[in-house]
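Write out this protein's structure.
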Amino acid sequence: MTTHKFSRFMLPTILTILVILSVGLSVYIWMNPSRYERESKVSTTSSNSTLTTRTIDDIYLPTQLIYTNKQGKQTLLINKNVSLVSQFSEQLRKWDARSISKVRITSANSYKALLNGEETYVLNFPDSVTINMFNTVFKQHLSNFKSSKFSRIVIPVNDSNHIYLLNDNHHEIYSVRLKKKSLKPLSSVLQSSKVKRFAVKMTYENNQTYIDYTQPVTMQHYSYLMSKAVASEIANRLLDADGNSTVSVHNRGNGKQEYATGSYKRMTTDTKLGTVYFEDYSDSGTTRKLSFTSQLEKSFTYLSSLGVPMDNIRYYNYDSTSSSVIYRSYVEGFPIFNQTENGDVRIQLTSNGLDRYYFSLYSLQVPVPTTGTKQAVTLPSSTSVLKKLIDAGYKDSKLGSIELGYEWSQNKSSKLVIDLTPTYYVYYNGSWRTYTSMLNGS
């Protein structure tokens, strides 16, 4: 009897001690920088398992969802807990696309009318994809116009039979006839109190659509534990795929290290920046003509072979000048800049058989708590940002897109933590710059 009473007394006491110990260890993990380092080293071996869970459907999804109401007011919709774009995409896969036809459009005004039509949802891709890729991503079987490009999907609320694929470049419109179209399964997630709405306006000028943020925007600041891939492992994967080659290593000075296999494949790492530049001359001199769809698909295959985590990576754009497919990390549908010199992953497939990859060894691992003033950042409207830049002497004709995104920077307290700070990026003179650095003249 005494033993039974003793057990009843000790069990709650032991549980209480374990809970206190657990809380103490958690605080120690977040506060001790040396702990970050040990966690980071362990995590770098898990990249291959991450890769296997990512498919081309994930990478080539749209990134934005915009709704136009009955009054013509437009809002960018975001849910922190659920990806609304993914929810729409899942629903679209259940619809049955029966046929596609090209709509005769004679003016940009007609294109604008559909783009900004009342009671419509618009899924925006960062850049053009093909209707063939539409089939792949949304599990459809459209047989016509498969090589045609588009970058927006317009979904009218009150039309149960059609969606529209829009190509900004020549204000082309493709009408897709559907069966089984329904938005009802999305009503609960769209009406959730967790949905954030940013006031925006889609403006179509010079064969391009611009997203203007018409009101100040409040966004969350994030911090992530950083993961670093092992350069030698990537070198073995890219240079010695069959396991029969000899990989040589040379120090080239100024923080550069070169890995090579014979004279056909070479990988250079910059230890200061944590970047990798890979070149494959195996088929150099061989003329090849890749369709745009083939370039997108082939670049994804190469992206998967790099061995870097792909949880947050999405297709960003295609650079026709260099024949490069560009990917970028995203958080809540917003792109991350400054991770590398160009802030992206580049896969270049040239017409003469030369392949080049450029990417970072660093990636985001797990979020860590943020406190104090860093929890949220309020930015001015993009309209006022543009006005300030012009007032500061920048010519309107030279200012490109203004994009809302996150700036990647190293945490001041720990080199193993990355801070993601919301800001506007402006495309100016061939590169992306923060609007604050431009206004400060830096």
